[in-house]
Design a protein that fits this description.
Blueprint lengths: L11 H27 L5 E6 L6 H4 L24 E7 L5 H8 L7 H6 L1 E5 L8 H6 L2 H10 L6 E5 L4 H10 L16 H11 L6 E5 L2 H14 L5 E6 L8 E5 L10 H12 L1 E2 L6 H11 L1 E5 L6 E10 L5 E12 L5 E7 L6 H17 L4 E12 L2 E10 L6 H11 L2 E3 L4 E3 L7 E9 L8 H10 L11 E5 L4 H4 L1 E8 L2 H31 L1
Parallel strand pairs: 1-2, 1-4, 2-3
Antiparallel strand pairs: 5-9, 6-7, 6-9, 7-8, 10-11, 10-13, 11-12, 12-17, 13-14, 15-16, 17-19, 18-19
Helix pairs in contact: 1-7, 8-12, 9-10
Length: 525
Amino acid sequence: MLSNNNAQHIPTEEQIEIDKKFFILQQSFSRNYEYIFSNDLAEKTVIIIPSLTLDEEMLKTIKGVSHYEERMLCMLMLLRMPKTNVVYLSSVPIDSTVIDYYLHFLPGITGYHARQRLTLLSCYDASRKSLTEKILDRPRLIERILHSVRNPAMAHIACFNVTNFEKELAVKLNVPVFGTDPALLHWGSKTGSRIIFKRAGIPFPAGFEDLQDEGDIVKALIDLKKNNPTLKRAVVKMNDGFSGEGNAVFNYGDIDVNDSNIISIVTDELRNNLKLVARNVPYQLFLDKFIDMHGIVEEFVEGEKKESPSVQIRINPASEIAIISTHDQLLGGESGQVYLGASFPADPDYSKEIAQLGNLVATELLKEGILGRFAVDFLSVKNDDKWLHYAIEINLRKGGTTHPFLMLQFLTEGTYDYNNGVYLMPNGEARCYFASDNLARDEYKGLTPHDLIDIAVCNNLLYDSVKQCGVMFNMIGALSQYGKLGVVCIGRNVEEAKAYYYKTEHVLNLESMRTSCENLMIQFL
């Protein structure tokens, strides 16, 4: 969710001036784009700001969220281009073992050569404030970033998401952003998504958008049930949710919408039994956030056979639309609303269909001036051997499916053919992967980055550049404290990719069990 004070961070006149300067920067980026991105030997600088500039209250419900900044370390692979410089920012310093791990996979480039073009900068601040805000609070750090950029005209910023904070930082650095102007982020909200879906003429769940308070939610829930008497559940969503954390599920039970006290009945049920996806968040806080952000209510799509595919798309500064990838998302939690991981590519039975629907959405977003990577999420239901696809939301940011695909592409230099639903490397071989940010157990706590790499090497888990299969780790810094890390398991087919995942889980379970036994023996002795 967007930070509540994001729009009020800068006084209005100053914001207007920043808007003007940002517009000029983005125009210059459009002019230089073709040369910068079409020439691997062009001298350029990429400033990577992996900040999750989202609502602090909701982010604190995600275990180890500060280490989500490490997911964009896959972009260190840009150093494979011999004249590309990378400046990587983080809230706290990243262990050198983790950096060495990524640089080890650079094709045709020595680690020494890559390190000469890599600048790692840290805020030394583990607070919940977003990374971008931390940078803005440190003028000397901004100066160090400026000194690391040799030619601002040949530089750009890569972000997880772009808000007014990133916009302000871009202006201070005089460097454009490869991403959407925050003034357009409404089109990535739940309300904006439904408007775009209507314009694109694609199916999406019945519901109501631009709701502002509890009364609006209650009315929408009642009207949904009246329009569809067989409806069992509905979803209440804040406009700017992240990984399902802004969602809640309403169960109608035996509610009779014709009851004379229906408003009171639904209000009481909403307050007492609404199932929030975010753990340990009281209803009143959820409602306060909803009132601040507004949101939607829509039908909970039922079905015996359901999948949650997504389409990743890019609009570049030349106004060209590219279908990057399709995924089948793994969702969990009590109501199946929490993002856990994904497999690539999406099921060939429907990957082309959802890609075509995503392209219709992208066409509408292009008209609004959207720039950069974004995703369109679907809920697909199989009835009588036919898949029905309902568009659920647009995410105008990088997401959980971004870094796994970037890692695959950097390692294999292949391309995804969405018409045939297959990813092919230059040698014609296909590759798939299964990725998760939630390989987690309390028993993994205490395993350091050094331990993880040692375990992976000794158990033949690491990605093999000869076979072009294996396991890539991310969020390694979260392992010791939170018992959690991310993995991208690459195989020749989805079954092989999942086998790598299960092997990784099995090995970590055995290693953590062995360590626990050794600790017990030491205590006993």
